[in-house]
Amino acid sequence: MELYYRKIGKGTPLIICHGLYGMSENWLPIAKALSNSFEIYLPDMRNHGLSPHSQNHSYKDLSKDIYELIIKNNLKDVTLIGHSMGGKTCMQLAVNYPEIVKRLIVIDISPKEYKSKNTGGINHNKVLNFMINTNFSEIKLRTDITNLISNNFSDNFTRQFLLKNIKRGKSSKYEWKLNAKTLSEKHFKILKGVNFDNKKILCPSLFIKGANSNYISKEDEKFIHQNFGNAIIDKISSSGHFIHVENPLELINMLNVFLSRPHSINVF
Question: Is the domain covering 5-115+193-259 a CATH 3.40.50.1820 domain?
Fold first, then answer.
């Protein structure tokens, strides 16, 4: 699938993959902070943003989309940054196409399969059911949908990503940017773990977790080290799952330190 993407900066190639309900523009502040040293590609993942919709949404599909972006742009020695769903996509890409991945940065997600649909304080069933059942024919003004969202969700993060996912369609009626139907039907695949296929990832890897997030546990850290031979795990203070929003300055600093470090490969 040919994804919509933004491109900024000059230097060695770096791709940032957003998470579920996200889009490329959410990561522009982080990309701009890194743009003096990197040519940064910010794709909208399939079924999100301005990218095409599909009935398929697995990590095999998502990682292949990014691989096709890499091949189309003739990119070599790519650094990957992925948050949540985007992090699993980048991990799967590193498994399937290790020859093109120079470095890997995974933000607040483990390679494991998640059992709960209510991770990170987000009730995904409620969010997706709300999106599917929203009748936009009854929505005349943006304030109508704003009030509807506010009446159904109390936390600001959920409200904001829902509001960012509204657009006017060809008929001038409001509609969702993302493909709520497929994301709801395939949500069990988003919860799935990375398929390592008995391979170990040897590229330098940084796993960043939010200090107030429950996405990466102590057991997950052991699982990460079992499958990533050159993994560092670090923590961002005063942050939950949405680190790029909650503590962007500390995140940018951590990224710069890792990306400026001379890396060596240890084979285990």
Answer: yes
